[in-house]
């Protein structure tokens, strides 16, 4: 019996260790999206959305086909109406994310997205009945202060529209995350297919069918959708099954911190001082919230995703 229990503990630790490694890899991979955005030559936002969605749809289709084979269509069908709603929310987030990175700095966009966990906590309270702990309320206030500072910077620099798009991206993605939480026992990877189809359709209509782009831009968008978004989403979904909510939130901070660093390092896009201040408030709030939850949880609780 003792040997069996020890083996189970080692197996759980092994899965958690692999999940942590996957979460780190996921965050690092997706953090290069902003750098790809800044290296596009002439592609307009709708063209970027179109080709990125095509790349994502191809990658997810391949993953689902290899994983489920003959059960592919059944798996897709099983997401139901709530999965379609989730896909629509994710599509909205993807479209507005491109708008945000087009009309504000990468740092602004990423730091505002750092508020996603707090919007998710609020929506989970409203729609799933999950209670908010006092520490979450305090950290949400800190994050809101950071967002206000960044909005001020937006007014000062004329990037109000970009900051607003980033805020709406955070809200819609948080809504999508709540849907995933509600259906966490269900395979929801097909929601990425729904999202891709919606984006492709809207982009084709919005451009009037004018989807011409340079080979350079098309290749980068395909890579962004397939190699970055596709792989990162798959790794994230797997990792979230074995890590607590606080842990996944903690690892997600890597994306928000690294994305502005890449564009500053490689193409010298320097964020403003107010943007840095607001962003640091958001990142600090999220980090402290995650660390406090990790400290307060027992080892047994760490393996179960709990309320944020």
Structure description:
- 80% of the residues lie in helices and 0% in strands.
- It starts with a helix and ends in a 12-residue tail after the last helix.
- It has 308 residues and is mainly α.
- Residues 2-10 and 300-308 have low confidence and may be disordered.
- It has one domain (29-303).
Unreliable stretches covering 5 or more consecutive residues: 2-10, 300-308
Radius of gyration (CA) equals: 19 Å
Oligomer: single chain
The averaged pLDDT comes out at: 82
The share of residues in helices is over 70%
Q: Using DSSP, what is the number of strands?
A: 0
> Largest beta sheet, briefly?
none
| Count of folded domains | 1
- Structural class of the helix and strand makeup? mainly alpha
* N to C succession of SSEs: HHHHHHHHHHHHH
């Amino acid at each position: 019996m003792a040997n069996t229990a020890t083996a189970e503990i080692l197996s759980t630790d092994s899965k958690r260790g692999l999940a942590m490694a996957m979460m780190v890899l996921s965050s690092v991979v997706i953090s290069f999206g902003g750098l790809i955005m800044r290296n596009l030559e002439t592609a307009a936002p709708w063209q970027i959305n179109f080709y990125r969605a095509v790349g994502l749809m191809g990658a997810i289709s391949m993953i689902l086909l290899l994983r489920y084979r003959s059960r592919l269509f059944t798996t897709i069908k099983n997401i139901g109406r709530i999965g379609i709603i989730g896909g629509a929310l994710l599509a909205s987030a993807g479209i507005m994310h491109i708008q945000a990175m087009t009309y504000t700095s990468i740092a602004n966009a990423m730091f505002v997205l750092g508020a996603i966990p707090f919007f998710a906590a609020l929506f989970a309270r409203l729609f799933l009945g999950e209670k908010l702990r006092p520490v979450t309320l305090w950290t949400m206030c800190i994050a809101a202060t950071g967002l206000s500072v960044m909005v001020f910077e937006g007014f000062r620099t004329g990037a109000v529209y970009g900051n607003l798009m980033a805020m709406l991206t955070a809200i819609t993605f948080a809504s999508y995350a709540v849907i995933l939480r509600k259906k966490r026992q269900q395979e929801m990877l097909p929601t990425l297919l729904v999202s891709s189809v919606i984006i492709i359709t809207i982009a084709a209509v919005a451009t009037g069918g004018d989807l011409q782009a340079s080979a350079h831009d098309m290749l980068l968008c395909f890579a962004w959708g397939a190699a970055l978004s596709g792989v990162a989403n798959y790794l994230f979904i797997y990792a979230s099954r074995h890590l607590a909510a606080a842990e996944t939130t903690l690892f997600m901070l890597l994306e928000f911190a690294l994305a502005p660093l890449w564009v500053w390092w490689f193409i010298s896009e320097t964020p403003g001082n107010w943007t840095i201040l607001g962003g640091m408030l958001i990142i600090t709030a999220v980090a402290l919230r995650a660390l406090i939850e990790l400290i307060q949880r027992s080892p047994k609780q760490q393996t179960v995703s709990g309320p944020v």
